[in-house]
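Structural prep section.
Before we set up the soaks we want a predicted structure of the protein with zinc ion in place, mainly to decide which crystallisation condition to try first. Input record follows.
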Amino acid sequence: MMYVKYCMHCGKQLSTKYIEKEGDVAHCVACDTLFFPQFNTAVSMIALNPAKDQILLIQQYGKQRNVLVAGYVNQKEDVEETLIREMKEEIGRNICAFKYLKSEYFVRSNTLMLSFAVVLDDMNLDFVDQDEIDCAQWFSFEKAKEEIAKDSLAERFLNHFIQVYHDDFFEEHDKIQINT
Ligand SMILES: [Zn+2]
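Run finished without errors. Recording the tokens verbatim:
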């Protein structure tokens, strides 16, 4: 985990201040501002077709490995907005429902990865962003387990989803209306 060493307001070197229930937190004495650990946040999506019996896997950056659609959360953006924006940008599809699954901190990119299951409005892949995505393909749950990149974060998220998934997984309050 990365910590800020200098105050982003006045540039003074930070000291630490003990905060009850938090422990030592980086603190600028001059501005009396606390600085909590800095890390990136990203979403990873188990994208399902409307019938919810197939999962979308993609290949990117010239690599012959199947992964899940993922993207970073922008500053000032809600995670719900990231799901919708990334799916629209990369796959050209809308999301009809989403459900949070689990998270995993990914050391290599200092990123907190949030795993979501999402349902797309259509299986049509004609609007996939050809610059960002080399290949996007639907797979049955069993086939997706075989085809996903081995020993990857995507594989762990996929296996977890398949373990917890059941009929009526998406409830009424998981559905969203999109006007685009
Ligand atoms: Zn300061």
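Observations: The helical segments are 79-91, 141-147, 153-164.
Flagged for discussion at group meeting.
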